[in-house]
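Progress against Task 2.4 (sequence-to-structure conversion) is shown through the following example record, which the project officer requested during the mid-term review.
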Amino acid sequence: MLLASLQTKREQEAFLSLAHLVAKADGNFDYASAILIGMYQEEMGLEKAPAHLQGLPVSDLCRVFTDANSKHLVFLNLFSLAHVDGNSNMAKKSVLETIRQELAVSISEAKRLESEIKIVTASYYPSFTD
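Structure tokens generated for the chain above:
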């Protein structure tokens, strides 16, 4: 949602790389995550996660985002992705917490953003109910 507003192609590519990390954190790249990532790619006009960013540490990927709006948008959408299948396990929660810290999103702000997640998720994946 609103990912096309990320300021640069590098930000969009970094987001997509982070999205793949979140989606695969538990070792299972499920159908719902694949659909949502495909929607992200379409919105940003990207075909796939860029090879030159694969394998970079989360800290390097997060460093690409410099303003608070971009950081919040990234966190919100990654949180949505982690919950799209209705099952956010410890592996996904751990990756999200690392990303939250690297993006310097406060715990209170993360909770506020998380409260908006159902609306965001439903806009990408209409069958999401919880």
